[in-house]
Specification:
Elements lengths: L1 H9 L6 H13 L15 H12 L3 H7 L8 H11 L3 H7 L27
């Protein structure tokens, strides 16, 4: 009861009554003096939004407007972004995109004829 009255005093009587009832229910049963707070939900799309802004070259404001018109969870879009930005295996796995290894090939050496003298080049 003391906790609820302190909380109500700090919020000047505008505390949600349902919250007060829950605090009373939690505080009456246990002997704990500490009530854990609600943790912030982690936003998984925040990192994807940063990568999409980098891919499209948009500012935060521009992307917030365009986000309403695009589906950022679209796998084909994410695959294009991964290929263009060169994501590693871990990042591709995090967003559920197949990682494709880049093909490495050697350049063919071409033999160029040497000039016979100083002015004999072409």
């Amino acid at each position: 009861m003391e906790l609820c009255s302190k909380l109500d005093r700090f919020n000047r009587g505008r505390t949600n009554p349902e919250l007060l009832c829950n605090l009373l229910a939690v505080g009456s049963d246990s002997t704990k003096t500490f009530i854990p707070y609600v943790k912030k939900k982690k936003d998984d799309e925040a990192e994807l939004v940063v990568e999409l802004k980098r891919y499209f070259g948009m500012s935060t404001y521009e992307f917030s407007i365009q986000r309403a018109y695009m589906d950022i969870q679209d796998k084909t879009l994410i695959k294009k972004v991964a290929k263009a930005l060169g994501w590693n295996k871990a990042k591709c796995k995090k967003f559920g995109v197949e990682y494709s290894t880049p093909k490495v090939s050697r350049l063919k050496k071409e033999k160029k004829s040497q000039g016979k003298d100083l002015f004999g080049f072409k």
